[in-house]
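Researcher: Here's a chain I'd like modeled. Treat it as a single chain, no partners, no ligands.
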Amino acid sequence: MTAHAPSRSTAEATLVEQFEASKSLARSPRRAAAFERFAASGLPTRRVESWHYTDLRAAMTVAAPLAASPDRAAVEAAGALLAGREKGGARLVTVNGRLAPELSDALPAGAVVASREGRASGAEDPMASLVEAMAPDVLAVDVAAGAELAAPVEIAHVTVGEGAYSLYSWTEIAVGAGARATVVETFLGGTAAVQRHAATTLKLAEGAKLKHVSVVGDDPELHLESQLVDLEAEAELSAFGFVSGGALSRRQIFAKLAGAGGKIALSGLALLEGTRRADTTLQVVHAAPRGVSREFYRAIVADEAIGVFQGKVIVAPGAQKTDGAMKSQAVLLSPQAQMNAKPELEIFADDVICGHGATVASIDPEQIFYLQTRGLPKDEAESMLLEAFGVEAIDRVEDEVLANGLRALLAAWLGAGRRTAATQPRTTGAGA
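Model: Modeled as a single isolated chain. Structure tokens:
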């Protein structure tokens, strides 16, 4: 029997044309290798296990034209969008995937924007590979060994322009041995015709500590965000993702605890209304002994929105004394809202402590009734319960200033974006 390779979709054919037409991209061996990895599999479908709930090939029927290099008008528009936004530390600004030096601050002592070619990632995921191939620039932030940054560094990824277009951004954050830093990535300006592809590599040397927050609150047609994480011995990463925008958003995290005693804490909150879809998919590989991992994600899903959480923890042979715990919880606010939760463990070592759990439920009507008997209107009672549910996830952000900002975003969403809650008892789940 003769095997027939599947034909390319219209979007895949366009992506090939875009890459080959850009000589600056095609000349780079790193980018060419990355695009070859993407082209080998193409846009993922539900047949790919990790993409089972988000059939990207079906959703992305057309690849929008590449965003042009930002001109003066685009930079000014980005500056206007940022005007009035508070910043607690230095801010770096990218406009349509390219660093805008005129809008960016100097970094504090101990941190630099490195001028170098990006490091080859070897990413196996096709969409992370596509970003590595197509991103026009590399924004590399290096924190020197032993440095302690007193204030967060914000990377504002600003999207500007009219009509349909796609953009790619590749960011590398490297934290030297024993260093301490906090980085916030915010995504701004995306509109309903924008396809945004972003990737960030987080590389922590021995004993380094990094706090990372990602905020997606604008409204692009597509937001695909990948994080590629590598932790050396005794390194610690605490990362939080806040998603309240995008017609279709997917945040995927591929983390490897390569050194003994590494610690990683991944958490997030997704707020969905209308017909939005939000997918959080992560894979944490314990490749060395004494690693600790914690995953804690919550979602509030209203109207006809659909949420997805897929988490896989892999304990490699020899990674003894691993301690892992994963939990996903969601509240559905209408009979049409959906949440797909799939936590997994793959354990190849025998001296470990690992567990996972997932719950999906509506608001408890007895709790609503209790608050109403204390004089609260029903809507206010619902908002109070939902705020408490969301804040418990935000409380895992260790920086109080950042956490306060996220609490304000949650309160604003509850005030403007939430639909009527369903209070019929409906709970399914498994706990560990």
